[in-house]
Amino acid sequence: MDHTSADGTRDREEPRSGVPRRAFLGGVGVAALGVATAGGAGAFARPSSPSSSPTGAAIPAADMDSLDLLKRMLSFDTQNDGSGGNTRPHAEMLKALWERAGVPVEIIDTPQPDNVHLIARIPGKGSEEPLLLLGHSDVVPVEEENWDVDPFAGEIVDGEIYGRGALDMKGANSAMISALLRHLDEGAEFDRDIIVLTDCDEEAGDYGSTWLAENHWDKIDAGSVLTEGGWFLAQGDKTTPMLITATRQDNVYFNLDITASGTATHSSKPMPDDSAVVTLSRALTELGEWEAPVHLTDVTREYFEALGKATQDRRLAGAIRLLLRARGERSRERAARLVVKYSDYPHLHRALLRTTHAFVIEEAGYKENVIPSSAEARVNCRGIPGGEKPRDFLASVRHLLRRRDVEVTLATQPGQSEEEALKELDETWATPPADLDTDLWKALSSASEKTYEDTPFAPALFEAGTSLGPWREKGVPGYGVYPYVLSNEQLIGMHGNNERIFVEALETGTEYMYEVFAGFRTT
Asked: Please, what sign has the CA dihedral across residues 349, 431, 379, 405?
């Protein structure tokens, strides 16, 4: 989740090799074999019936088992520190999987060695435009010393599978791929081609979906796209499904840099009133205590209406009613604070109400006996499309910090002016949400009714970002789901420590994806 623009990268420690972390069978890695031997192969898969496959291929039960497949995916270290990751071994494993199923598949090399895309294409029998499944293979780096388990082992503890990418988004990839393979094993034919793109450089880098679209659009041209996004939320017990959502719009991604200056001198003679570090710290403290105003759009209003009806918490339901009925800014702000207070997912719901700002990188100094002349912080911001414009948020931050003796700048691409960057953000901000009158949306909704029965289903805004840009620019509708019910603690683990999902939720989510694809079957 989230593509970091080139200006947002920083030097990082080189990621480890993409070779699987665990080896079995006398030194031959499980992932290299293509079929895992650990974790109960076939636990979530239906019996394989090779003779029914339209390709005539024998699909191993393990390939149709989302837990088994996820363990294999997690065993590959595909960390992306901002300069791309080593995704080739992971792609080779998936390539072998698709080949076993008789599905045409190819690896697309990028200019960066071993940083590759994988495209599998299941031929359809109808004339409908292709459906594209978009799932990234790279993951953000880990702070391994802060994990309770090996982040690349796929270890199961108390019903949860841990690993970097378990949630974002190898878990979703495993659910989608294993569900598709089950259909093929049953002899399914679809009314359109189904393209499965496992891309690289989604988390950061120069060769993600934009590069792929510029160089290989014919391979990924589609009528609709499904990727990461919508959350499957739980009631207060953390496991009972409360609300199933699919996202139809992403937040607007931009960065601000806040820079303070001071006198450089010997560290034996500190000058607190002329210290870049102290000045920056005071500015960040003030900004950290401030929030942008609440903005409700048609998309977020529909989401909170659905949440208010779905929750069993009367306090949260009441706060949402106050929010939706509020006419003035003060009453809206009071209601929003109550929504966040009573929500079991406070950080998510805060992010759906206003432009957010997060302090992500801070740099100052180069030697312990030198007081530096400057200090800088990178602030990552997410704006709500149709809500507050990024240019207005920038103006508010500058006004807030006007007495702090700091410079607030919008991060731009090399050679790009601030106004040019703001105009681009204006265009992104004005991009309409994906149409709900599509075959894919209907399949997502129908699958929810069948899999989660009495649990409400609703469209939503994704508080983060995806690789959907190239398709959205061409007017192709794109949606997102993470197909497993999550607790708030698991949601926080995304891009954090001890990333994990419920094994049982993965199983049910795989059934959900199976029902989604059933909407495109002709046989």
From this structure: negative
Q: Give Cα separations from 17 to 9, 14, 75, 88, 152 (angstroms).
A: 20, 9, 11, 10, 12
Average pLDDT, integer, range 73-78: 98
- Rounded Cα distance, 17 and 31, in Å: 14
Torsion of CA 12, 14, 19, 20, to 10 degrees: -40
Rounded distance, CA 370 to CA 366, Å? 7
Q: Percentage of the chain surpassing pLDDT 90?
A: 88
pTM to 2 decimal places:
0.90
Q: Which of 114, 132, 228 is nearest to 494 (CA)?
A: 228
Please, how many CA atoms are within 13 Å of residue 207, restricted to the half-sphere of its CB?
21
Q: How far apart are CA 463 and CA 35, in angstroms?
A: 36
Buried b / exposed e over 475-499, threshold 16 CB at 10 Å, is: ebbbbbbbbbbbbbebbbbbbebbb
Distance from C-alpha of 463 to C-alpha of 466, rounded to nearest angstrom:
10
Q: How far is CA 235 from CA 231, 238, 243, 350, 486, in A?
A: 13, 6, 8, 18, 10
Residue-level pLDDT at 10 = 35
What residues does 108 pair with on adjacent strands?
117
Distance CA 301, CA 429 (A): 17
Q: Kindly report, residue by residue over 475-522, the tens digit of the pLDDT.
A: 999 999 999 999 999 999 999 999 999 999 999 999 999 999 999 999
Taking residue 214's Cβ as centre, other Cβ atoms within 10 Å add up to 9
User: How far apart are alpha carbons 489 and 487 in whole angstroms?
Assistant: 5
Residue 296 neighbours by CB distance under 10 Å: 21
User: Tens of pLDDT along 163-173?
Assistant: 999 999 999 99
pLDDT digit string, tens, across residues 80-124: 999 999 999 999 999 999 999 999 999 999 999 999 999 999 999
Q: Are 480 and 266 in contact (CB under 8 A)?
A: no
**How, if at all, do strands 28-29 and 23-24 pair?**
antiparallel
User: In this structure, are residues 120 and 453 in contact, taking their beta carbons and an 8 Å threshold?
Assistant: no
Dist CA 117 CA 212 (whole Å): 8
* Tokens linked to 127: 């004339």
> What is the SS3 assignment for 195?
strand
Are the C-beta atoms of 494 and 382 separated by less than 8 Å? no
Which are the contacts of 156, defined by CB distance < 8 A and separation ≥ 6?
Answer: 39, 162, 503
Predicted confidence at residue 441, as pLDDT, reads 98
Burial of 16 (0-12, 13-18, 19+ CB in 10 A): middle
CA distance 95 to 117: 11
Calpha distance 284→200 (Å, rounded): 34
Helix (H) or strand (E) segment spanning residue 55? none
Q: Is 498 helix (H, G, I), strand (E, B) or coil?
A: coil
